[in-house]
Amino acid sequence: MSQSSPTGSFDVASLVEDVNLRRVGQYALVVFFLGFFLVPLETGIMTAIKTNESVARSLPFAPPVGEGFTLGNIQFALEQLSGSFFNSLIMSIPATIGSVLFGSMAAYGLTMVNWRAQMGVLMLFVVGVFVPYQAVLVPLARFWNNIFPLARMIEPMVASIPFFQGYHADLVPLVITHIAYGIPICTILFRSYYQSLPNSLVEAGKIDGASITKIYRRIILPISKPMFGVVFIYQFTQIYNEFLFAFTLVTGSDAPAAPVTLVLPAIGASTSGIDFGIRMSAAFLAAVPTLILYVAFAEQFAKGLRTEA
């Protein structure tokens, strides 16, 4: 250990010798990555609470000073997004639950139950993962608008539900589309988890006389909670932030059923230019539901990742 000399002066040589260079390097890396991730976040927050003039005249990461500070950006963005928030949630929540639950069931049937043509069906799910959105946009629009206009058929029924309006029926085809498109990737994710489970779980259930359905409901489903947390967060984030299907089926940011992803690009834009403070405020508000979901399922998410590893 370094000690000061009897005269009270520091022994520089001993102090340098005691310094652990490896630990110093680790701290330096931590500080570097903290800055790498936090500086853009701090810059975004500062931009969100600045007036447009302050944004133009100050450094991006500098805090607002005097009249450059405003909360009006957040208030304006919240007013613009309030309706689309509701649209996004009533679209994302049922679509996520449906695709995750069906994906879990399909993975169980393709992994822990033996039956003919199993591999052929599994290959169809794998192919479904790689079908690009752009390849199905035109047939999708024709199907939901001309061949099977489900939204128009159920509009009176949706309008009779409390807190809902008739135009919310336009979101039902979008929900079904996201469920169908999300099942393949959810199935593949759950299958990798079920392959790690011992077959003795299913065999023990069969010996006790349980059916395939009962084994899934009583044994497989309870032990799949961590994986449900991972897949639910992943799928909700994908659906909530999706743009192409929403733009094709809801058709524009001025539609009353438009979700957040359609409304967000138009906020803060005008003929005189872009108000970056308003746009940044809207971007932060749009990210709030996914952040709440990550916090709510953080424990299950961490367990699921450890299980996957």
| Major beta sheet, strand line-up | 1-2
Helix count from the secondary structure assignment: 15
Helix content: over 70%
Globular, elongated, flat, extended or rod-shaped: what is the shape? flat
H/E element order: HHHHHHHHHHHHHEEHH
Low-confidence stretches: 1-5
**Which percent band covers the strand fraction?**
under 5%
Terminal Cα span: 41 Å
Sheet with the most strands, sense and barrel status: 2 strands, antiparallel
Tell me the Rg in angstroms. 27 Å
What is the number of beta strands? 2
> Pairing-aware structural class of the strands and helices?
mainly alpha
Overall average residue pLDDT: 88
Explain what the structure shows.
The protein is built from 15 helices and two strands. The protein is 70% helix and 1% strand. The chain has helices at 12-18, 21-48, 52-57, 72-111, 118-129, 137-147, 150-159, 171-194, 200-207, 212-223, 225-240, 244-250, 260-263, 276-296, 298-308; strands at 269-270, 273-274.
Protein topology:
Blueprint: H1 12-18, H2 21-48, H3 52-57, H4 72-111, H5 118-129, H6 137-147, H7 150-159, H8 171-194, H9 200-207, H10 212-223, H11 225-240, H12 244-250, H13 260-263, E1 269-270, E2 273-274, H14 276-296, H15 298-308
Antiparallel strand pairs: 1-2
Helix pairs in contact: 2-14, 4-8, 4-11, 4-14, 5-8, 6-12, 8-11, 8-12, 9-10, 11-15
